[in-house]
Design goal:
Structural class: alpha+beta
Largest sheet: 5 strands, mixed
Distance between the termini: 30 Å
Shape: globular
Strand order of the largest sheet: 2-1-3-4-5
CATH superfamily: Cytidine Deaminase, domain 2
Strand content: 15-25%
CATH topology: Cytidine Deaminase, domain 2
Number of helices: 4
Number of strands: 5
Helix content: 25-40%
């Protein structure tokens, strides 16, 4: 498993920032980018893609998960999320649930200062998540 040190976090946040610029957010005008750190040290990125039929939009985190899984990767270490504005941005409830399917990864978000970041374990953001064991 890849360790998640400050340099890796900075690189993930930079990738999330770059892909954020590609977001399709004409309705909310709130572009979001996400970068997933995979177990092998590579990354998968995603951005939000909105739709005029609002429920059909796709969050950045789920977009990154779909890209990783489509490439054959299912082992994640961390996800970095970057939005816009002065608040720390965490994944929405639906994205937290999707991410929890792949383990208790680190979630990293840019703090109000662009040069700072905050990280939490997914289990802190989504305690007692619904999982495979609940299906029996």
């Amino acid at each position: 498993m890849t360790a998640i040190d400050d340099d890796i976090i900075a690189a993930l946040l930079a990738q999330a920032q770059t892909v954020r610029e590609r977001a399709y957010a004409p309705y909310s005008n709130f572009p979001v980018g996400a970068a997933l750190l995979l177990n092998d040290g590579s990354t998968a990125v995603g951005c939000n893609v909105e739709n005029a039929s609002y429920p059909l939009g796709l969050c950045a985190e789920r977009s990154a998960v779909a890209n990783a899984v489509a490439a054959g990767n299912r082992h994640f270490v961390a996800v970095a999320v970057v939005g816009r504005g002065s608040r720390t941005l965490w994944p929405c409830g639906g994205c937290r649930q999707v991410l929890s399917e792949f383990g208790d990864l680190w979630v990293v978000s840019r703090a109000p200062s662009p040069s700072r970041w905050v990280k939490r374990r997914l289990s802190q953001l989504l305690p007692e998540s619904f999982g495979e064991e609940d299906l029996t």
